[in-house]
Amino acid sequence: MSGRLVSSGIRLPKYVAGDGRLDLMKISLSSHAQRQTLQRIYRQRSQHRQFHVSPSQAAKSRFDSPKSEKDESRFAAAKSKKNAPQSTPEPNAAQDQGEPRVTRKEVKRERTKILLEQREQKIRELEAQEKERLEQEKQEEERAEQERQELKRLVKEQLGLETENPAKEEKSRSEQSSNVVRKIFFSGVASAGALVLWEMWRFAYSTEPLNDQKFSPFEIVDRQQVSPTAFIVTVKPVVSRLGGLASQWKLAWLETLQHKLAWEGTWAVEIKQPELQVARDYTPLPELDVLRATNEYDTRGRIELFQLLKGLFSPQQSIPTFKFLIRRTEGGEVSSWLSRRKVGDTIELRGPHQSFNVVARAGYKEAEEPKRVVFLAGGTGIAPALQAAGSLFREHGQTLKKMPQVDILWANRSKEDIKTDNPVIELLEKLKEMSRGKINYVCVVDEEGRFITANDIVAKTQITPPRKSWFWNSSKAESTRSKDDVNCYYHSSKHLITSAGEDYEKVDGENPRRQCACPVGRPSFKNLLMVSGPEGFNNHFAGPKYWADGKERQGPVGGVIGELAKKYPSLASDWLVLKL
Ligand SMILES: Cc1cc2nc3c(=O)[nH]c(=O)nc-3n(C[C@H](O)[C@H](O)[C@H](O)COP(=O)(O)OP(=O)(O)OC[C@H]3O[C@@H](n4cnc5c(N)ncnc54)[C@H](O)[C@@H]3O)c2cc1C
């Protein structure tokens, strides 16, 4: 500790005045050492009776010490006033005797006042600092923005874009905004259009003019008696009351369906007798226009799209019609009722019900060699024969190279059934001409004593008896071959026995094609021997069908053909016998 020597020889600290009084302003008892010092001073004062400060007063002065130099004088004055009456009057302190006494409260108030002023000062300083900081930040941002703008300008210059023409910039800005408005407008129009089309599509499909769930009305537009017992009725869908685009759409849809069905094989629809609430199957005759379409359009997808677009936009919409060849059976519930219907009457149809996919079984365009198809038709059974021939023509009509040879043997009771003006005969003739003889037909009439015989079948199928050789029993070889049947739904005779004639499996209302399970890339297309007519006719030639699990199934081949298969093993191995 630094100090001064007084006359008494005692070294005094710096806060002891020359006259021996304590200079309270210089006392700071912040440490233990200082407290020790104060105690020592007190002891010295009691020894020399020269000092007037008690240890408690000294300790108090620690708290009373002013915080800044500015307040020091004021504080010292107040302190001296306060201490004046307590201290012993000194010869040189006579001048203070007349001053008023300062209370402890006043000191405290003064001190609080000073502290408040200090705090306010501090707040003002902080506010000033904050303001300065914000000002700096703002300046920084402005500088950065300027730099950005400058950079943009430089980039535009580098890319060769105009920057100096504000009018141009303004123009391009307005063009951009008008483009945005245009885009919004057109996308709105497109969405509305799509919505309308979607609704139309839903409407068209929700109420198809022909579907296999419920009966739809059709109007008889033509009726032609072709023999004493057989007649042809032509019907068209009743959709006109829907009017406008919706009915156009429906007609186009029906026309597309007609094309699709004609391409795929045999199919029928049910016709309802409303008084008795019973229905029977009838087979639509193929439409020549539909069959001819094959020469113009080669793919299924294109023709469907074409039909739909044509139907939608052609002002004179052709209305698709269906023709049925019906024989009135005496006492028959539906056929008799139908025979009494006139032009303008309405009948109800449900379907289509597809059966055999003739093209898949006999061969698509990719078949290695053309196959043969022989059809034994009795009476109205000619309708599925025409469908089968038509679908093969649709598949191969363009080149006819891979087109199977189709031979139809048509048996009728009376000569009147095969008159030349009979539309069915006209249709057969037309197909023969269009296919350049690939589709052929022969008519036999009971009245003339001519029937379909086993020899006719052998001649048309061109099957040959097994060759007999002294070193090789070929009949044995052929019968072995017939057992090596492929395990394929379309091309296996074994599968056919249990088949219910559903080549188009129903899945979710759709009729997807079944898959050929022959070795990949080598479908074993088969020759087809098809039998279609009244039950007795079918049983006579191919044997009866049988019922299982609620469905009528093909059953084993019997009758005339079954007998032939025993003599001609190739009939069993190379031919599929389909009963319609
Ligand atoms: C897939 C398929 C397609 C067909 N396509 C055609 C076609 O294009 N054209 C066509 O004309 N036919 C077709 N038919 C046949 C047709 O479905 C009917 O079977 C035929 O028209 C006779 O029906 P119906 O109601 O007139 O006679 P039904 O009432 O069924 O009577 C049939 C026979 O049984 C007799 N009969 C009826 N009730 C009795 C009784 N109580 N006692 C004794 N005998 C009785 C009748 O006299 C009649 O000979 C097709 C059949 C199928 C399965």
TrEMBL record:
PROSITE patterns: FAD_FR. Keywords: FAD, Flavoprotein, Membrane, Oxidoreductase. GO terms for molecular function: oxidoreductase activity. Residues 44-110 are annotated as: Disordered. Its main location: membrane. InterPro entries: CBR-like (IPR001834), Cbr1-like_FAD-bd_dom (IPR008333), FAD-bd_FR_type (IPR017927), Fe_red_NAD-bd_6 (IPR013121), FNR_nucleotide-bd (IPR039261), Riboflavin_synthase-like_b-brl (IPR017938). FAD binds at residues 325, 334-335. It holds the Pfam family FAD_binding_6. Belongs to the flavoprotein pyridine nucleotide cytochrome reductase family. This is Cytochrome c mitochondrial import factor CYC2. It comes from Podospora anserina (strain S / ATCC MYA-4624 / DSM 980 / FGSC 10383). The lineage of its organism: Eukaryota, Fungi, Dikarya, Ascomycota, Pezizomycotina.
